[in-house]
Structures are given as structure tokens and as C-alpha cells.
């Protein structure tokens, strides 16, 4: 079971996590989890290019190691990247030490202060350990789940999920994975077309400004 649109009470329950971007401008933040994948990611990049869309890829460290050239292409084309652990770890079922260790292994190949917990599941103690340090990670959740990972729904339904719930500042989850491929290849071009026609722009998540940059010590 999952909710397409993140309810307000869940956001309130985890206020230090980022659930959507605070903007009134017509900006939508698409994100792609679990790649890079040898065929799906190049399709995503080609499709994004047609709409001059910038987005964010939450990569699995182990997949970056396998597909270094695709990872380089993501960066070269102006997208943001984020850490999604080395082995797609389940936070709720993993001891903090092992969870943090897996993130730091992924960090060897993914240079980013952005982090998204696999399955959106992370313990409070893990959040604290990622945030209460000198260079904290910004934990990015989402406001809209496309459901592309759900093999019981059609591409049309996946598209409807995104069209119905996305608006200014939305963070939308897709997956550049084999599992999501059927729905993704149908929905992604139509999402880009629909919102472009309505005057929206697709933006990459910004990396947080380091504290020194703000004159704060
Ligand atoms: Zn994932």
C-alpha cells in the first residue's frame, strides 16, 4: 500500500525532511530513483533533453560503479544527483551503523549532499545521524509518487497519478529501473508534454548552500 500524494500529517511528523519545494513559480521537480540503468536511464535522458528538463537522479552506488559512463552523462547534462545508498538498504530493518556505512560507501562514487532513503523508510535515529553532523545531508522525500514501480497498474494510471497531484514545487518520484520501464516509458513523455504546455519548467533539486556561504559559522 502506498499513497500517491503525501498527506500533510506525514510531512508534519517528519518536519526536518524535505517533502516539496517552497515556491509559487511553475516549477516541478522530477526525480528518478534506483539507476543508473543501461537502457532506461539513456531513454530518460533523451526524453528530458527534448523538453530541456533538468531533474534529479537518486542513484544506487553499486549501479553507478556498473554504469559510470551513464552517470557521467547525467552530470554532463546538468541534472542533480543524490545518494540512494550503495545496496538499496531498508532503513527500518538495518542497524544505524550498517545503514550509515552503506551510505558512505555510495558516497565514494556519488558526490552529493542530497539523500533519499530507499522505500522512503528511515528511522529517526538515522535521520539524526545524517543531520547532526558538520556537513549534514539533505534528506529528500516527495509529494507525488507516480506508482511506476507498481506492476499492477497501467502506464495510463501512472500518468494520471502524476497529472492529478503535481503542482508548483512538487517533488515527483519515478524510477529509472527495469521494473518501472513499462509505465515510465508511457508516462514520462506525456508528463513532460502536459506540464510544458501549461508553462511549467522542470528543475533539478538545488544542492544546499553550505553554511559558510551564508556567513554563518
Ligand atoms: Zn529506490
Q: pLDDT average, as an integer? A: 94
Specify the biggest β-sheet. 6 strands, parallel
The CATH architecture can be given as Alpha-Beta Barrel
Overall domain count: 1
- Ranges with pLDDT <50 over ≥5 residues? none
Number of helices: 8
Q: What structural class should be given to the helix and strand makeup? A: alpha/beta
Helicity range:
25-40%
Which ligands does the model contain, each kind named once? Answer: zinc ion
Give the N-to-C terminal Cα separation: 44 Å
Large-scale geometry: globular
Total count of strands: 8
Integer-rounded radius of gyration: 16 Å
- What is the third-level CATH name, the topology? TIM Barrel
Could you give the order of the helices and strands? HEHEHHEHEHEEHEHE
CATH classification class: Alpha Beta
Tell me the β content.
5-15%
- The CATH homologous superfamily is named Glycoside hydrolase/deacetylase
Give an overview in words.
Strand 1, helix 2 and strand 2 form a beta-alpha-beta unit. 41% of the residues are buried. With 217 residues, the protein is an alpha/beta fold. The strands form two sheets. Strands 1, 2, 3, 6, 7 and 8 form a six-stranded parallel sheet that branches. A two-stranded parallel sheet has the order 4-5. The chain has a single domain, classed as Alpha-Beta Barrel (TIM Barrel). The model has no long low-confidence stretch (mean pLDDT 94). The protein has eight helices and eight strands; from the N terminus they run αβαβααβαβαββαβαβ. The site of zinc ion has 5 residues, from loops.
Amino acid at each position: 500500500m502506498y499513497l500517491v500524494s503525501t498527506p500533510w500529517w506525514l510531512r508534519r511528523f517528519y518536519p526536518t525532511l524535505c517533502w516539496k519545494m517552497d515556491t509559487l513559480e511553475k516549477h516541478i521537480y522530477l526525480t528518478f530513483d534506483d539507476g543508473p540503468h543501461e537502457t532506461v536511464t539513456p531513454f530518460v535522458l533523451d526524453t528530458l533533453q527534448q523538453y530541456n528538463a533538468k531533474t534529479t537522479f537518486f542513484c544506487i552506488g553499486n549501479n553507478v560503479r556498473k554504469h559510470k559512463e551513464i552517470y557521467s552523462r547525467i552530470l554532463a547534462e546538468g541534472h542533480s544527483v543524490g545518494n540512494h545508498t550503495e545496496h538499496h538498504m531498508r532503513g527500518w530493518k538495518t542497524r544505524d551503523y550498517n545503514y550509515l556505512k552503506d551510505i558512505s560507501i555510495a558516497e565514494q562514487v556519488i558526490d552529493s549532499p542530497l539523500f533519499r532513503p530507499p522505500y522512503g523508510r528511515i528511522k529517526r535515529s538515522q535521520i539524526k545521524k545524517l543531520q547532526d553532523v558538520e556537513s549534514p545531508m539533505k534528506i529528500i522525500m516527495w509529494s507525488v509518487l507516480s506508482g511506476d514501480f507498481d506492476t499492477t497498474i497501467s502506464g495510463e494510471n501512472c500518468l494520471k497519478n502524476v497529472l492529478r497531484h503535481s503542482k508548483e514545487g512538487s517533488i515527483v518520484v519515478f524510477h529509472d529501473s527495469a521494473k518501472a520501464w513499462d509505465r515510465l516509458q508511457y508516462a514520462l513523455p506525456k508528463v513532460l508534454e502536459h506540464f510544458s504546455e501549461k508553462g511549467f519548467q522542470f528543475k533539478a533539486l538545488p544542492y544546499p548552500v553550505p553554511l559558510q556561504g551564508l556567513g554563518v559559522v
